[in-house]
Amino acid sequence: MSKQELVVIGRDDPSTACCPGLATAPLDEEQAAGLARIFKALGDPVRLRLLSMIASRAGGEVCVCDLTPAFDLSQPTISHHLKLLRQAGLIDCERRGTWVYYWALPGTLDRLSAFLATTRAAEGAE
Predict the structure, then answer these.
(1) Beta strand 99-104 with 62-63: parallel, antiparallel or unpaired?
(2) Which of 80, 86, 93, 92 is nearest to 38 (CA)?
(3) 75-87 vs 29-42: helix crossing angle, rounded to 10
(4) What is the pLDDT along the chain (126 residues), one digit of tens a residue?
(5) How far apart are CA 103 and CA 126, in angstroms?
(6) Distance of alpha carbon 48 from alpha carbon 53, whole angstroms
(7) Residues 51 and 91: beta-carbon distance below 8 Å
């Protein structure tokens, strides 16, 4: 058996974390593909506004009936945008009677935040 010390990834060194930040290490193909799907979903102003409305809602969830009036779009179009946000892993939902309630998924938002975060050392390099 080897006597080498095992390194636990992502515990002490942020550069070895599961999803490295933009300024800490380059992404591999799989990480880049996953983040690209998320950014593609956020690339539409309607979807970006929907996510913002959902994530900022007091109580953590919002009924689709509260989202639709904020847009000059049909209900099926809003549903389509919500579906794309769900497929990207940014939100989830639950049907309650005739209404659907949505909430943001903190894990995905944290992943995006960690990726976009810069370190003090990286900021000083500019």
Answers:
(1) antiparallel
(2) 86
(3) 160
(4) 444 443 333 334 443 345 556 666 788 899 889 889 999 999 999 999 999 999 999 888 999 999 999 999 999 999 999 999 999 999 999 999 999 999 999 999 998 888 888 765 445 555
(5) 37
(6) 9
(7) yes
What is the torsion angle, in degrees rounded to the nearest 10, for the CA atoms of residue 56, residue 83, residue 117 and residue 8? 110
Q: Please indicate, yes or no, whether the overall pTM of this predicted structure exceeds 0.70.
A: yes
In contact, 41 and 85? CB cutoff 8 Å: yes
Is residue 82 within 8 A of residue 102, CB to CB? The reply is yes
Residue of 34, 33, 41 lying closest to 82 (CA atoms): 41
Contact 93, 82 (CB under 8 A): yes
